[in-house]
Amino acid sequence: MRIIHEIHRRSLWQVLGIYVAGSWVALQVVNEVVDSVALPEWVSGAAVVLLVIGFPIVLATAFVQEGVGGEKREEAPANPASTGEGAVPGTRPASPADPPAADIRASSRGAHRRVLTWRNAVVGGVGAFAVLGLATAAFVFMRTAGIGPAATLVAQGVLEARDRILLADFTNRTDDELLAGVVTEALRVDLAQSESVRLAEQSMISGALTRMERPTDTPIDATLARLLAQREGVKAVLTGEIGQVGSSYSLTAQVVEPADGTVLFSHRETADGADGIIDAINRLSRRLRERIGEPLGSLRATPPLERVTTSDLEALRLYTQAVRAIEFDADDERGIALLEEAIAIDTAFAAAYRKLGVTLGNRFEQRDRRIEALIRAYNHRDRLTSSERYMTIASYNTDVTGDVQAAVTAYENLLESDPTYYPALNNLGIVQFQLRNFERAEELYLRAATAERSSPFPWLNAVWPQVQLGRFDAADASLDSVATAFPGYATVDEYRGKLRVLEGEYDAAIDEWTGLLERRTGDPFYESLVHELIAMVEAAHGRFEEAERRLALAEDADRRRGLPGAALEHALTLAWGDLIVFGDTAAALSRVESVLARESVETLPAADRPYLELGDLYAQAGRLAPAREFLAAFESSVPADQRGRGVANDYLRSQAAIATAEGRTDEALDLIRRSDRGGCIPCVHPYFADAYERAGMADSAIAVYEDYVDMTWVDRVYWDATDRARYLERLGQLYDEKGDLPKAAEYYARFVELWADADPPLQPRVRAADERLQAIMQEIG
Fold it and tell me: What is the C-alpha separation between 208 and 564, in angstroms, rounded?
């Protein structure tokens, strides 16, 4: 062969240089094949071993074939005795039977030369790699066919791809009582990156525990995990333990069959010290995923655990405690505090930032902290799992930039890879609802409920589009589903009360909320919520003294929760009543200014300062100079790229309020229409009504009022407090002025009924409407 001929022409050092260069090229080729065909990682390691073994063989072959330093072989000199010339006296002539010493050396070298040939070296190397190829092919075949020790659980038919696996809490056999929880959470994060492993969600576990009448924070040991898996139809349980010997740690995990506890697979990893635990978890997770049946290419493409969580064990410990506090103990306050401790340790801990932003968002409070957390999570999104990265991009675009289409794209990209991913289905439903695609939103929520039967949120969210579509029976059925799966779930009572308000059953609504308050006494979150809801109903009926008493109780609960701005928030609610219900501008401004004198708005976080609402109130009151100042303060404190879609809409409406007060009706109406682009439906009605009334556009005002009073919106109770009665009253008056007496009588009657027990200062309006109603009834017979 030509290659062998060329090798013969080279010196020893040239041959070794060629071998090293050839080995490098061979490894690049092997690595490329391993990556492109998704072969086992050990193939590359085996190739390195073969090349290392080949090195001394090539070295020896070059030495034998070419000589040290490439010396030329010399012929042995002739033996003088063989011719009789120049014989040394006194010596015995060599016998023809004795081989000369040179011949012995030549014979030995010849034997080596016959074995250590370039042909043998090349053929041996090719053969060794051929054996490696055959071994690799056999491994891949056995792995996919479910044969032998290389077989995966999916290939064996024990599991199917994406079957749920329930992760039990690791058993702790160390001196650190929190370490097992850290390992469990870290393993959960890493397994969440898998294409084949689908962990049972925390909501499913909580729901199952509730149905078993056990606390949702019950530790999930191996025995309970198997029981839960059998009850919920989960195919396998993943158990494990962490032990300690000196400064070393051992981590063991087992995949177990729930029914009889048969161990389907077991693996162990060790860590030399605490700093090596995260890396050991990473290795353990990858081995588990490989054995379960994850494609090798997907496994190799997965970033290491420390890249999608944190490399700091203490930060991970705090994060683990926070997740448990929020998801199991329903203790958001403690969870938030723990998350902030974790972030202080690892300032690039994206998962902790995201959890903080989501938790604050679910509570609809502290927007400034929530926005900051979402921005930090987005900036460090390369340190998240693939699914969390898409979710973070979407949250950032909905809540921070307001780019809804970018959020939709992120959710859809995630659902392409996993059409049953519950959080994406649920959140995309929220976005579609905000875009007022109600049919699509309901479809997504119901798909989410099917994909994750153990979470209450998709059923609760489905209530919103169902109400908008007039499907009250479906909405009640959705609440029944939550009540059945999660007995005592507080939001069910909250929503049932809101639906009763929409149906005009106000006493039933108050009964629902009072029962909720009795069950959650001592919980300041629900104390604030219930007192505020009841205050809204009382105000809608004209009972503002009782509403003020309830709002004082809500404010007290908010103060116990440590919420800034509680006094100003509730003062604004009552000030709107003073202004647009009682028509008392001085009382409205005095109420707000007395709070501002005690608690400056500048002490609040920038995104939580109610500049826009203050500006709206002052514009409505005709105080345009302070209204513009509040608007300017908002513009300087909240950057345009951090307002989100909802806040951006509020900003347009605040501009409209000032334009309306200045008589620029066309500009005001254009701003209001531009703000009506999804999300809150009743938000635009007060602005339209004010603009039309000031412009004397009675027919347009009537259309706005009628649209509102017949509106179905889950949270309408908050607008009813100040708007419902006055809209009914005004409709009666406007139809009366138009001469449409039947319509006027209809709305006068509804107004009188709603305010029958209103506070004494409001009773003259009730009597006037009732007297006019009686006169109309006599006139039309």
Answer: 37
Q: In this structure, are residues 358 and 371 in contact, taking their beta carbons and an 8 Å threshold?
A: no
- Positive or negative torsion for Cα 691, 697, 701, 704: negative
- What is this structure's pTM? 0.69
Angle among Cα 347, 353, 359 to the nearest 5 degrees reads 150
User: What residues contact residue 684 under an 8 Å CB cut-off, 6+ apart?
Assistant: 653, 672, 675, 676
d(CA 407, CA 428): 8
Angle (CA) 203-479-500 rounded to 5° is 145
**Tens digits of residue pLDDT in 442-493:** 999 999 988 877 678 899 999 999 999 999 999 999 999 989 887 888 889 9
What's residue 86's pLDDT?
Answer: 43
Residue 347: CA count within 13 A, CB half-sphere: 0
Please tell me the distance from the alpha carbon of residue 243 to that of residue 249, in angstroms, as a whole number.
6
Is pLDDT at 104 greater than 70 in this prediction? no
Which residues is 171 bridged to in the sheet?
241
Q: Measured between alpha carbons, how far is residue 233 from residues 155, 205, 575 in Å?
A: 20, 12, 55
The torsion angles phi and psi of 236, rounded to 5 degrees, stand at -150, 160
Torsion-angle region of residue 70: left (phi > 0), alpha (psi -120 to 50) or beta? left
Q: What angle do CA 131, 136, 137 make, to 5 degrees?
A: 100
**How far is the C-alpha of 465 from the C-alpha of 712, rounded, in Å?**
10
The pLDDT tens digits of the residues spanning 656-692 come to 999 999 999 999 999 999 999 877 999 999 999 999 9
Number of neighbours of residue 512 by Cβ within 10 angstroms: 23
Q: Where are the beta strands (DSSP E) in 493-559?
A: none
Query: Using an 8 Å Cβ cutoff, are 646 and 679 in contact?
Result: yes
Task: Please report which confidence band the pLDDT of residue 245 belongs to, taking 50, 70 and 90 as the band edges.
Answer: confident
| Average confidence (pLDDT) over 680-705 | 96
What is the residue type of 283?
R
For the beta carbon of residue 211, count every other beta carbon within 10 angstroms: 15
Any idea which of 324-338, 541-555, 636-650 has the lowest mean pLDDT?
324-338
Angle at 615 between CA 375 and CA 684, to 5 degrees: 80
Contact 755, 765 (CB under 8 A): yes
Residue 496 has pLDDT above 50, yes or no: yes
In 3-state terms, what secondary structure has residue 242?
strand
Spatial distance between the Cα atoms of 322 and 336, rounded to a whole number of angstroms: 7
Q: What is the 3-state secondary structure (H, E, C) of 446-460?
A: HHHHHHCCCCCHHHH
Contact status, residue 157 vs residue 189, Cβ threshold 8 Å: no
The pLDDT score that the predictor gives to residue 32 is: 67
192 band by pLDDT with thresholds 50, 70 and 90: confident
Q: Which position has the higher pLDDT, 121 or 274?
A: 274
Distance from C-alpha of 225 to C-alpha of 231, rounded to nearest angstrom: 10
d(CA 388, CA 414): 9
Phi first, then psi: give them for residue 674, nearest 5 degrees. Answer: -65, -30
The length of the chain, given as a count of residues: 781
